[in-house]
Design a protein that fits this description.
The protein has six helices and two strands, in the order H-H-E-E-H-H-H-H. By secondary structure, the chain is mostly helical.
Length: 179
């Protein structure tokens, strides 16, 4: 009886039979770059109102393992993610952490000259006189600064942005396949 059995098989046709793994990798990178670009632009909306000279806003970038969005100062470029299926968004500008989290009172002289010079420049650009500027400096030294988060508010938005591109990627895969 075993000799009379017919061999049966399932034949697969369609988009999945035409998949090219190299193209899938390229598409994945392209979607990560798009996610990074959208999230970066959204994050900049949080920094612009409090960014007097634009330094922080200009420093915000995205980066994948393979590529990144160019920024004016290379020292502000964020580190590469460790995973090839990840995109990181943020800034390494020296004041980015303090903008995100606020500061405690400034009680040491460390960095004082740079801080005072920066505050004087800010005050003069705001048409303040020197006495007004010094009042602000002493208030910051006494109380610190308020936080103005730009990364933390992006977490729920990043989930939305990523899911939007994930849906596009799935639609692409199921309708056309990957050439």
């Amino acid at each position: 009886m075993a000799g009379n059995m017919k061999t049966q098989f399932v034949e697969t046709k369609g988009a999945f039979t035409n998949m090219n793994l190299m193209e899938i990798e390229k598409d994945t990178e392209r979607y990560l770059e798009a996610i990074g670009g959208d999230a970066m632009n959204e994050m900049k909306h949080y920094t612009e109102p409090f960014d007097d000279e634009g330094t922080l806003t200009e420093s915000i970038t995205w980066r994948t393992l393979a590529t990144y969005n160019p920024i004016p100062k290379s020292e502000h470029l964020i580190d590469k993610p460790e995973n090839k299926y990840a995109v990181d968004i943020g800034s390494k500008a020296p004041h980015a952490f303090f903008r995100e989290n606020g500061t405690r009172p400034h009680t040491t002289d460390e960095g004082s000259d740079e801080f005072v010079a920066s505050m004087l420049g800010w005050g003069f650009r705001k048409d303040m006189d020197e006495d007004e500027i010094w009042k602000v400096i002493w208030a910051i030294r006494k109380r610190g600064t308020a936080k103005h988060p730009f990364a933390y508010p992006m977490i729920p938005k990043l989930h939305y942005i990523a899911s939007k591109y994930f849906k596009v990627a799935l639609r692409h895969l199921f309708t056309r396949g990957v050439r």
